Amino acid sequence: MVSEAPGDLPLQTARGPAATLDQWLTTFHLVFIALDPYTAESAWILPTATRILRVYDEADCRVALLVTCDADDARAFLGPYAKEFLTFVDPDRSVVKALDLERLPALVHLRQDRSVAGSAEGWNPRAWRDVTEGLSLAMSWSRPVLPGPRDPAPFDGSPALG
């Protein structure tokens, strides 16, 4: 994982135009969970991912799902979550590459200055808890319980570049 994300990195939403990372970070931190919709691992973690994002939905940060596919496949994979959450699509995995992610799913917290405040790859509840504790401290917000009673057992995830 990089220590600072490139400001000119384009983030394409599933619903409309792309904007650079700098534009998305103008007002708020950005917290997203990167998923590969073509793997079982990302399907296993989807309920956990959305539970985590709901905790921070009204905090002073943008929460999002980043899906490594086009908009149609993102909507098919996410179902109602595609309308509930800001959804970025990354069909060529350029965002995943630019951030130097190695395993998906991944939880990423970016500050307004583009520095990486925290990240966790694969599903390691302790690592994800560390990221959410840092986010909760930064936002003066409550934190999700990790792991939750219905969360999957830890797993390494799938290769981020496919």
Short synopsis of the structure:
This protein is α+β, with helices and mostly antiparallel strands and 162 residues long. It is built from six helices and nine strands. It has one domain: Glutaredoxin (3-Layer(aba) Sandwich), CATH 3.40.30.
How would you sum up this structure, described in words?
The chain has 162 residues and is an alpha+beta fold. It has a single domain, classed as Glutaredoxin, CATH 3.40.30. 33% of the residues lie in helices and 25% in strands. It is built from six helices and nine strands; from the N terminus they run ββαβαβααβαβββαβ. Strands 2-1-5-4-3-7-8 form a seven-stranded mixed beta sheet. Strands 6-9 form a two-stranded antiparallel ribbon. A hairpin with a 5-residue loop joins strand 7 and strand 8. The chain is globular. The model has no long low-confidence stretch (mean pLDDT 98).
CATH topology title: Glutaredoxin
Kindly provide the name of the CATH class.
Alpha Beta
Major sheet details: 7 strands, mixed
Q: Briefly note the structural class of the backbone.
A: alpha+beta
Total domains, how many?
1
The coarse overall form would be: globular
Which homologous superfamily in CATH is the superfamily? Glutaredoxin
Terminal CA distance: 17 Å
| β-strand amount | 15-25%
Query: Could you tell me the number of beta strands?
Result: 9
How are strands sequenced across the largest beta sheet? 2-1-5-4-3-7-8
Stretches where pLDDT is under 50 for at least 5 consecutive residues are none
